[in-house]
Amino acid sequence: MVRIGKRRLSARKFALIITDLILVVASLAGALYLNDPGNFIPTPTAALNAVLLFLVVGFFSFITFGFYAHIWRFASIAQYMQLLLGIVVQTSICWGLMLVAQSALPFPVYIIYMMLFAFGAAGTRIAYRAGMNNSMVRDLLYRRWPQFNHNSLPGSAPKRRRIMIIGAGVSGYQLIREMLQRPELYEPVAVIDDNPLTHTYRVLGVPVVGGREDIPAAVKQYRVDDIILAIPSAPRQTVRAFVDICHTTGCELKMVPLLQDLFDGKVSISAIKNVDIDDLLGRDEVVLDTNAISGYLEGETVLVTGGGGSIGSELCRQIARFKPRRLIVFDIYENNAYQLQYELSAAYGNKMDLVILIGSVRDEKRLLSVFQEYKPGVVFHAAAHKHVPLMQDSPGEAVKNNIIGTRNTARAAARAGVKRFVLISTDKAVRPTNVMGATKRFAELVIQSIAADYPNTRFAAVRFGNVLGDGSVIPLFKQQIARAAVTVTHPDITRYFMTIPEAARLVIQAVLNWPITLESSYSTWASRCASTTWHAT
Fold this sequence. Notes:
By secondary structure, this protein is of the alpha/beta class. Helices cover 49% and strands 15% of the residues.
């Protein structure tokens, strides 16, 4: 390692500089010879002066244009264009100086020199890149003849993961490019794209072998280990279709992040994730009337009980977008509440008055003091016990939290003059067959009773089915998917799914649909989600 000023000159970079200077002399000699093979050697003094001039000007030009500032193993077209520009500038300066000194060489010499040196400089860098990616020849053989077992070649590295890319667009190109730069781990062997016009092309040497219907055959032909879906903007129906096809091949399907991450330059091999159950929703999320919602939330004091939970925290995120005067998060579990406080404070800072309160809905005195001090105008009651098996084993706790807690909260809200109160219920309250469903149905009857006594407060309840990611049945489904066996209560059952953001938006929307009945609320949600079903297997 040689130190030049504050910079360190590595042996590799030093060797590249010496190679370029040798190429300068060789290219100049070659240009003189090709211009006049019979008399290509000028006088010794003129030859020496020309060589020294080209070396000195070349050295400083190459440094200026960053010939040695790039990691050429990862160079792109932009770096090679910069290389060409530096050669043109070097040659132009030499021609101008020699013209002024009246010792200019024949003009064709300069043109030939540029061509020779550009070919030599680019060639050495490409050779270096090929040397670093020493599997290039084996990869070319394998892509030309897939049946050729390149891992048996002498000196071959241990078997890498052979990858099929779905999508011949920008995202697929970036992934293939990064994989080719990490050949010890990945080997892209085939690309799938539904556009038939791409089927005769190659992406960085990787052939586009067909559309989605060709996936099973291509997996066998190219002996694919993993499949990556490189279409960040693909709708959920498309993702689910590819999952169904890839499931028949035995390969694991992964996917790249969102399209915004692609624009931000975040798409890389490390960012690839497994296909999550959220990606299999099978439809686009329901988008509700945000303008109408903002009419009753903007400038209002809003209280969310159970605000640190999955539904409660998403409610707080959605509510915060509508600029409430104050958002109060009430939760008994301090860890979740603290994490939500950090998240919302980082997102909104002083733009929103955020209050985090620790307490239990079982404690009526605590609730009364909170309502009297902060006087919220809207209350979303999300605090509850919801896990069916646990409540079967601890029915008393379900009664305390789901029934008595709802009564305490609703009565305190009504006495404090709250304008709107929304209870988050469950589809299991329709015809309860378990403790959790029965306590939630009882909670609905409680708020109906309190609503009759306090007509100035609007009470509503929203029933949900399966919410993706809310911590209920979904983790069990994820484990079953990993074992390729999804089971439900009965072979004939149909489950409807929604995402947490959808659930939160529907809760907020429920207040607008006044008057509202519990049954019509659930039917409306089910019809919206009818395209997303899971059947027993």
